[in-house]
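Feature request disguised as a bug report, sorry. It would help if multi-protein outputs had a clear separator. Right now it looks like this:
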Amino acid sequence: MPSRPMSGVRVVEVAQFTYVPVSGAVLADWGADVIKVEHAVRGDAQRGLRNLNGVESNGGFAPIMEHPNRGKRGIGLALENSEAREVLYDIVRTCDVFVTNFLPGARKKLGIDLEDIRAVNPNIIYVRGTALGERGPEADKGGYDSPTFWCRGGNAVGATPPSLGGVVGQPGPAWGDTIGGMNIAGGIAAALFARAQTGEPSVVDVSLLASGAWANALSIDIALNGGAIAQGVDPANGPGTPGNPLVGLYRTADGRYLNLCMLQPGRYWADFCKHIDRADLIADARFADAEALMANWESAAEAVAAAIVRESLAFWTKRFETLEGQWGAVQNALEIGNDAMLRANGYVATVVDVEGRSRELITSPVQFDETPAAPGRAPQFAEHTDEILEELGLGVEKIIDLKVAGAVT
């Protein structure tokens, strides 16, 4: 298998914001030639969001555009113009996949619905990324990941401790968009495989709502079958998890946290006690075996908490390097971006921006043949219009005419 298995695959994307475009970024990471179509005047609406979480983009390098658009080529088309639609159709004829997140009314108006695209290229895989799904009473509604993936999908309740007195928001921008986009990329890969096997092109549908439900699927399954409705861990309940003192969040001396997740407490208890300098707990009758440890989990959790809180997170991170059981430091965005294992495995890529400066982006999480992805930067607005039109066989005069007519930028 080649390290870029989508090499030779050509994708045309008529989409904006992050959900759906980020699937094209994944495909580009995997080697596909992805052509991003933006409106010839307005461009992708997300280009206007230069201030995210109170932080301005740096020197024209806007992560909010780079994240979902790295590695693509860009063209500006005013699809309400019949000449621009013909250019799009010419591109469609050369492509394996058509991807959009436009609403049903807009797809019909602009001539990019399934029937329109298949009339031009009967073998193309047609992909719709929607908020709520292609069928049902709300199929014509749009949405974003916060209300749809996170809140309506049950994730907000699942992350919120009962004592909070509110609801926890998404952990960061484009959280559900990015997960949903990865689902789309996987669906496209499967559809390409199926077409290679059967000769039949698929219609691929992925919604933010379904992606949110899938991320929360086990909790939903339990609830649908008579179990409890899951809610976030309430710190007021104390350390540990009922029946297991080696599962849960523990506070360190510097106000940070680490997460223990040793699902077999009896197996790991002795080694863990040695690592927290409490070997005396091993011989304690209350914790003599797995059954006793589970029965007396609250006392064990209190002892663990008292030991952990004496030292800093950095101390425990170093000490637990030899720990047999499973655990993790609670890291923020900058810390995970600099995580030694993330970098050792090539999941942070250096990208040269339009001004020639080196920047860094997180790559998509799938590698092939142990080869890290090497994404390029996102295209500037309509950066590759002339290049793409020339590939279609259009001469200089025709390109000029299209620009004069306002069909392309």
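(second protein starts here, but nothing in the output says so)
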Amino acid sequence: MNAKVGLLCVAAALVAGPWLLWRIGAVRAVAPLAVLQILGGVALGPSLFGRLAPEAHAAVFTAPVLSSLQGLAAVGVLLYVFVSGLHLDPARLKGEARGLKRITAGSFLLPFLLGLGVGAWIAAFVPGAIGPRGDAVTFTLAIGVCIAVTALPILAAILREAGWIGTRLGQTALALAAVNDAALWLVLAALLAIAAGAAAQIGTTLLFSLLWGAALLGCARLLRSLAEGEGAEARMLVLGVALCFVSAAAAEAIGLGYILGGFAAGVVMPPASRAALIARIEPLTATVLLPFFFVSTGLKATIDPGSAAFLSVLLLATVATFAGKVAGTALPARQAGESWSFALALGVLMQTKGLMEVVVLAALLDAGMIGPVVFSGLIAMAVVTTVIAAPLARLALGQRGDIRTRGTPRAG
């Protein structure tokens, strides 16, 4: 098959297939479009399409097609997290800073600690769990990182589909996910540096991260002076997207990951330009470009439900993720004065993994720290936790909780 024809056929299936399925009322009632896009990406990979029709799969996903998909995936997810950053308004959360600190710490530390326990068990009892260049300590730390992940891009998509992204619930969830991602990439960068025998790089990473943050704040001041006047909308579109790409490139070079770089660029954009940028970028990105990210990551997963080792990893990781994220988020939120409905909904949303987990897992697999069975089991866990997030959040909220999320932030 001609490479261009193959790419265009895959693109048509990615864009139209999940959307057509989502248009069915019974499906739309239980699953956001983003979840169907995730499942579509997995289905097109070796776990389903590649298993049922290996020759057709190989004919469609040739090397040129895969290369093009990876490029589109990077641009799609980058623009989407940029829009997610535009949706986050730090000013709305200033009055809740003290509570957010406790919630942030709990939402990362408790699942990380549970992940360490799961990692130690898997390392001891699952054959082939540790990669060729890993050891019990680095493997255990790696599983802790994977359990602590909150998938910022997919969380933003779920919030958008549910109509929560502008509410207190949505704003708080985005803020927590952003801090979780920052901690995740810092720990992951340190872990990979240790695995590569380059522990001295950790201090360099922290230093360049501070410089990157200072540069972003400087760009934000400059952009505020350009955000008004004739032609401001078109000017800010070009400058905003350019800043997104530059910030992502810098964050990737530092070791923080391009996804965090794109999100940070959206956060620092001038408030006067945000609505226009969202209106121009979000619809095309969410429905056309983001599915390429899902299929690109789904192609790396091989899910084998007949394997006892696979099922063990899946079960333990899912339980640790759900318990750690929900308890680690909800209990501090309740202590900060939130209602149980708000706190539990926030905790359920924070256990969303999405296929961003694959980004972390692929890095660990490439570094030789985890084996294929762990890679596949954790990918399946990411799908399960993402699928259950929105329905359980709705269940936790109920009518009173939904009203509560739309209130104004408290002053203390």
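Even a blank line would do. Unrelated, but nice: The radius of gyration is 21 Å.
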